[in-house]
Structures are given as structure tokens and as C-alpha cells.
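Consider the record:
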Amino acid sequence: MRRCEMMGWRLAPVSAALVALIVPAAAQDKADPAASLKLPKVSRAAPPSSNATVNLINLLVKQGVLTEEQAGALVRQAEDEAYVARQAVRDAATKAEGAEKSAATAVEATSPRGTKRVTYVPEIVKKQLRDEIRKEVMEKAEKENWASPGKYPEWAQRIRFYGDVRLRHDSSFFPTGNYPYTVNYNAINTGSPYNVLSDGTYGNPYFWPTFNVDQDRHRERLRARLGMEADLFDGFYAGLRIATGESNAPVSFNQTLGGSGGNFSKYNIWLDRAFVRYSPWNDIALSGGRFDNPFFASTDLVFHRDLGFDGVAAQVQHEISPGFTPFFVAGAFPIFNTDFNVGSSLDFTNTNVLPGKAPSRDKWMFGGQIGARAEFSPDVSLKFGTAYFDFTNVQGKLSSSCLVATATDFCSTDLLRPSFAQRGNTYMALRNIVPQYDGTNLLPQYQYFGLASDFRELVVSARLDLGQFHPLHIVIDGEYVRNLAWDAADIAAKVAANPLPAGPIAGCSSATNCTQVYAGGNQGWLGRMTVGHREIRQLWDWSAFVGYKYLESDAVLDAFADSDFGLGGTNLKGYFVGGSLGLGSNVWATARWMSANQVAGAPYAVDIFQLDLNARF
């Protein structure tokens, strides 16, 4: 008896639901049957209707496809059909209601007096309905992306943003006894040429542009970088990064707070990375644009860790036996590209202006490296590599004889001067200036300066990682460099002809007593040991390091060397020590002390203390 009662209650609502699903919702609207007898008014300027069919007919009338009479007949036909549908709905509902009442009457007739009927849906039916509804809703939610507002669309999930911010306190301490007249060749070469006769005679140091070597400085500095990498398709990747910086110097993103004019002036943002990379397999990567250093470098002896490389590079590696993976890297990198509007020069030999512009002096670096990574056990690994870098058109050359009447005049080898430099490399005068007189007075001689040495660098790098105390590691880094193009005799001759102090020269006992005898070299090395966590990512992660650096004047291009040790450049030796401590997830502090001295030439020393607060995201 109870089973019949339950079936009677279940049939009625199910019948009504089936009817509602079969008949379109638009046909269930209330309507007056008499309205279908009236011919609807159709106009070319008819306002929009809530009925899509009427709107379409009005549009066809407006475009002249249908006449108003034809349209009126179609609208009437549509409304007639809608009326029939509504009647069918009402009839179905009436029949369903009658069936429900009949079933209820039948159940009541066979039920004892006082019987109560309760609608019952088995638990298995409820679960099936819930699963079906959940599936439909989730499919729609994922398609329309409204149920998961924190989830990116598929194309956005292939883009990754990253960045970091570093706050730094930087103090430079100069001892007494430094030679105060170290010439700032970068200031000359990136500005107007220097008049070597500014005081009427050669060699008065009070007129030279020089570095600060005796006044302590304390700076608060900022570095901020924001990057994006996109996984495109079929092994293609792209990346961009912007960064702060006081200038477009290649080796520093530091911005001194209060700099750039002070008074809370805004700071520059530079395009630091922009590249496309193709990696069809995990063992091969081809890069083009501006990207990170593609070569393995265990230290920043040769290239500063922040240096970006312009050009193209190929990286190949393959594990040929368990734990042993050789690798090869090669690339071509433009350092300087000649401007289309570069100046014309006055050739003194022919006493006329050369036709057209000066020839191209494009500068390139070509590099190759071969090495391997060897894993002796899960806790011990060694990575090593040997690289060779060949630089073209970076060495200065004496120009043809030229007349220089003003600071804007151009000589044939002016483009060979470095477009950026730090300090340490040896310099030569570029212009072969023909003296000119105004009556009895010698006219100004505006001079530019170039590098006295050529550069072909052989670099050996190695890193030993001892991880038996995991998560703590002991990491030993070492690097050696030798400039194979260095020619001491050739450089010494160029130094002797330079009207200004040209680099590491001997006999500088005072400002006016400085013998132009070359004392530079072509080698360098750096050793460092680090103990602690390999990466500082969590609270109380830590590491400590100590090392020693020795880099002679013309071992590498000073433009690309570390910008912190000794305030940047070459011809430096000394030790450094420091450590890092995690203050939270991806937040850590670093302190370091660096003590540098001149390798050769006039006395120079500086001690630097840096305290950093780093945040990464």
C-alpha cells in the first residue's frame, strides 16, 4: 500500500516536468487568444520587439526584402503558431493535473483512514541527480570561467611574471695615500673630447677629469626588476624584463636614492631583457635578442653577474652516461654598431673632406665554451668549462693626420673609443692631431682615447658542490682568465705617447712626478667558498662566503667586470667576506665587506661595506 502511495506522488510531478521540458519556454507565456485575430502592424521604422521572429521580419521590411503586407501575414502566422503552442502547454498541464488527482484519489480510496502521504526520493536517485547537475554546472563554469575567478584563461597560464626589489646601504671608505689623479677616461669618451692643452702645456693634473679616491661616500640605493616569460608553442619561448638604473651602464641596475637631480625626482626604467628562445628538445636551446649570459661562469671575474648579452647563442648538452653531461655553448654578440649618421673627417694628407661618412667600426664579441657536469654521487657534483672570447675592433688605433679646430671635429678612428668603461684598462691617444697656431699661440688639441690592448680571452671555470650535509652545502668556485692578445711592448709604446696617465704606470710619487712606464698585466683569478643553503628562500635559511680576487689591468675588458669590488673594473686585488640570512619566504638580508687594492701603478685602495634587503616574487 505504501509503495502505491509513493508512486502516485512521484508520477504527477514527473509528468509535469516532462511537459515543461518538451514545450519551448517561449511558448509558455500568457497570451490573449483574440489577439491572434488582429493583423499586426509592421513598419519600416518599427521599434525593437521582444520576439526575435518579429524583429527579423521588421529588419527584412526595412531592407526592402519583404513588403509590409507579406510581413504582416508572416507575423500573424508566427503568432498563430505561438498561440497553438501555448494551448498545447495548457492542455498538457490540465491533463497532468487530472492524472495527478486521479492517482491521488485512487491511492486515497485504497488507503486506510488517517494515512499520510510523504514524497520519497531514494538516496541513490538524489546522488545521481547531484552528480549530473554538478557536472553540467562545472562544465559551463570552466568554459565561461565564472566559477573560478582566480584561474587564468589557458593562454594566460602560459605566461609567468617574476621580479625582485633590493634596498642597499653602500659605504665606500678610502684610506690616506691614494694617488688623487686617476683619469676618468669614460667621462672623456662619452662626452666632448678633452683639450690636452687646457692649461697651455701638457700634463697639469688639475685640469684632468678624475675619479674620487679620497672622500668617503655613503649611499642608499635601489634595484627593482620586473620580468615576463611566455611559453608560446612547439618549443618557442619569449621573455621581457625592465629594470632600474642611473644610466644604461651594462653592469649595474642600482639607482642611488636622491640621485637623478634629487628632490624626489622620478627614476629611469630600462629595457633589460628581450629575447626569443627555441628549444625543440631539452638538450638544445637557441636564443636571440638580449638575454642572460649563456656561458657557464662560476664567478663574475670576467663578466658581471647582471650583464645582459645582445646577439644570438646556441646551447647544447647531452648526458652520455649516468651522471656525466657534456655541454657546448657558442654565440656572436654585437658590442657596438656604427651610427648611420657618423661624422666625416678632415684628411690632412689630402686637405679636403672625405666623401660621405666615415667607415663602419662595428665591434663584436665571438665566444665558444666546452665543458661538462659530473655527478660523482647524489651529494657531490663538479661542473667545469673552458671558454674563448674574441673581441673585434675594441683596440684603439692612431688616426690619420687630422686637423681639429673645434670640439665637434671628427677624426678617422674616433669610433674605436669605448662607449662605456669603468677603470683599470690601459689607454692610448686616438687622434694624430696636426698642431695649429693662432699667430704664436698653439690652438687647442681635442683628444679622444682608446684601449691600448686587444682582447682574446681564455677562461677556465669550475664549481665543486659538496652536499653531504643537505640541506647545507659547501660550494667551491674558481675561475682563471688570460688575455692571449696582450703585447706588453706594444702597449708600453702607446702609453709613452699618451699625454695623460694611461693606466697602471710606475713612478707616481706625486701629482706631477709620474713616469709613463707601463706596469700592467694580462692575467686574473678568483677563488670563493660558500657554506650554507644553496638558495635563501625560507625563514632562517643562511649562507656565508669568503673569497679572494686578483685581476691585472688588461686581462679582461673593464667595462664588463664586477662593478662592486674596488668600485668596479680591473687592476684590483683583495678579499671579500659576507653572508645572507632568510627573514621570511623569499625575503632575506645580505651583508658583505670588500677590501681592494691596486695591483700595479699608482697607489689606490678602497674598502666597501654593503647591507642589502632583498625581496623576490
